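Shall we go through a protein fold together, starting from nothing but its sequence? Label the sequence line and the structure token line clearly, so we can match residues to local backbone shapes. Would you write everything just below, so we can both look at the same thing?
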Amino acid sequence: MPLPRRERAPAKLNLTLHVTGRRADGYHLLDSLVVFLDVGDVVTVTPGPLSLELTGPFAAGLAAEPDNLCLRAARLAGQEARITLEKNLPVASGIGGGSADAAAVLRALDARPEGAETLGADVPVCLAGRPARMRGLGEILDPLPGLPELHVLLVNPGRGLSTPQVFKALERRDNPPMPEPLPAFPDAATLLGFLRICRNDLEAPAIRLMPQIAACLAAIRDQGAELQRMSGSGATCFGLFASRAKAEAARTAIARAHPEWWLAASGLAPANP
């Protein structure tokens, strides 16, 4: 596909995250409901030798190292290109930033190489770029048709959290999966009812490592969210609200009380073609 190409790398949200087992090699098995939001990073790929330029508000937190996921994705695709990453999402924040960036590079290069999951468990679902049930190590994807509109507030306490450390702090690794089969979600009330019986099994160990996560969840709850939960391995939390206006109002109120936190109100991103 001709270059240059500009690809969005939308934030990934784990509406649920059940840790259902651990393999002998140490990798964890997951069962997660994943959607993508209309906030995120942006990747631009132009012809030239392989390189990476970082811009955006969170560029300073992401060193352009030889093993950066964007560069690793291009190498996996066997292609050379100049990559510019506009880093709008916090680093190490549980909303798939690095995986979404790597997937955006692969899409920009029109590449679907074997072994994309070796870049990270979230890369296959980010490459697909549409709501899905994600299982196994992240490689088993079942698309979710017909999700209702969601009004989301993201709240991050301004600190990164190590995914390996969160998994290490997990007390139980053989938790029940989501119900089988998944029900249909014709409206927001049905989806919310389902989400309330599900979990993020990484939330409790993440809070033990970073108590500020509990403060984020409490702030979201106090603003009248229909549901509040942590995404991925943290530290970003989310609230689901009845309308975009309510999510925006909550963002304004929380930002006034906690100017050091990162916040974004969002809806669902359009699915990748």
